[in-house]
Amino acid sequence: MSAPSSTAPHRAGFACFVGRPNAGKSTLTNALVGTKVAITSNRPQTTRHTVRGIVHRPEAQLVLVDTPGLHKPRTLLGERLNDVVRTTWAEVDVVGFCLPADQKIGPGDRFIAAELAKLKKRTPKIAVVTKTDLVDSKALAEQLIAVDKLGRDVGVDWAEIVPVSAVNGEQVQLLCDLLVPLVPESPPLYPDGDLTDEPEQVMVAELIREAALEGVRDELPHSIAVVVEEMLPREDRPQDKPLLDIHAYLYIERPSQKGIVIGPKGSRLKEVGSRSRKHIEALLGTPVYLDLHVKVAKDWQRDPKQLRRLGF
Ligand SMILES: Nc1nc2c(ncn2[C@@H]2O[C@H](COP(=O)(O)OP(=O)(O)OP(=O)(O)O)[C@@H](O)[C@H]2O)c(=O)[nH]1
Question: What is the CATH number that goes with domain 11-182?
Fold first, then answer.
């Protein structure tokens, strides 16, 4: 890519990464922004909220919108998540379709590609082949060819096909260079230095949810929601020793799940608390007292009233 000249107009706009669960969208967002703003996990479908990471460059600003994975909906929550995804696609300037290098293109990818084909023609679509560190060059070449073919099969004209590894940073800058010219000429949309406009409480809730998902049974992740009820600075603290009190509820669907989340003698919940507290402190830059409670919200995934309460 050519270096920015002083006469080049400033560009700013929105990009979003789509792809099936676990495709590496959140990790890529983090790699581009350079800090942990999106929530990653080795479990599918952990990204519930649209999280924006913002890439600041002298000549451009890229606002990255991270969406949940698009999938065949089985519950009301699933349908709502898909609506969120489609609404996001329609609003962004460029879409990056993430396909892991180490996995054969499957029905899930074809489903998304077919949806992308329905998106307005003038929204550029970049195919991003992720996790290139997991495969050798021969397998990578084959995947690039398969992605090209996928585009032709469904009728999407990829603006680019870019292999990247978010883990070792390979080609991440190149991807950024390729995204910038695809957003419109515009002054910066966000103040310099902002990394995300996600409300702090939502990010804190996501960090707690991420910690709660670690090491629990496969079926449980979809049944956990976290709501931060209150974040208040502790009174009577000396100025140089502030403490932020955070009260949060971990919602599960059934009483039988309580034991899994809490663990023997509360050991798991304690661990979830201390692990997420570290991340929260790093995010907010202040010591935190975290008060975590587990509550049963029966069948919350199927109940519109509960879903609204839990922020969906
Ligand atoms: N080796 C390797 N692993 C990666 C890379 N990018 C992501 N991963 C791993 O792949 C898994 C899924 O990554 P995420 O970024 O959470 O995927 P996602 O697409 O955001 O997933 P959802 O939120 O479920 O939609 C995690 O375990 C990551 O550590 C990469 O470049 N190389």
Answer: 3.40.50.300
